[in-house]
Amino acid sequence: MTIKGIDVSSHQSGNYSTRGMNFVFVKASEGRSYVNPKQGDQATHGREAGLVLGFYHFLWPGNIKAQAQYFVDKAKEKPGDMLACDWEHTSEGTAASNKEKDAFIKEVKRLRPRHKVLLYCNRDFWLNRDTTSYAGDGLWIAQYNGKPGKPDIQASWRFHQYTSSPIDTNVGRFGSRSALRSWARERFDAKLTADPAEAGTEAGQPAGTAAGGGAEDPE
To answer: Is the pLDDT of residue 198 over 70?
Structure first.
């Protein structure tokens, strides 16, 4: 079974339609100098609609640890939100290497150990540029093949972006919104069971707070 969701960036408004949607990934940052100016409104809109939230960072080559820190500093994430690395060609035609992609995901996981951290890439990157099959906590694969939930890859995946018309639209490999929320929150909930006094604290942030906080969208 799958559920439907979208991803948004500065190209979309802060009051996008949530009808029929279960989750939304919001662009947070890019490189070391760009923050989506609509991120706050887009995240609030998704939360108010009851969607499961995710945030993504558009990865550039170089300065990988600095980019990871920039991402977690700027993303408006809360406990239970998903984080993702957007790995594709930049506006200059360059792309982070597979080694850099792996390093970025691992650094974000180190900085935010209880959040689920995903890899977003298209089918070409996954089949022809990736050499380690490392996708953190799950693969978010892009292939506009007209078959939602049926990307042409052998690897296991969590999300499939299957069209960009009229907006980037995805399916998640979950039976329900609550199943996705439980999966996204499981490390926080495990901590709650183990130590209620510390539950909800992530990288020094009190429960329920967010870290502070282009050009291209996932495609």
So the answer is: no
Query: What is residue 192's predicted lDDT score, i.e. its pLDDT?
Result: 72
Q: Which residues of 180-197 are buried (b: 16+ CB within 10 A; e: fewer)?
A: bbebbbebbeebbeeeee
Average pLDDT over the chain, rounded to an integer: 91
Average pLDDT rounded to a whole number, residues 52-64: 98
Integer distance in angstroms from the first to the last C-alpha of the chain?
23
pTM to 2 decimals? Answer: 0.88
C-alpha pair distances (Å), 81 with each of 12, 25, 112, 143, 210 = 20, 9, 11, 24, 10
Provide the residue count of the chain.
219
d(CA 134, CA 28): 22
Which residue's structure tokens are 């490999």?
Answer: 173
Spatial neighbors of 204 by CB under 8 A, at least 6 apart, are none
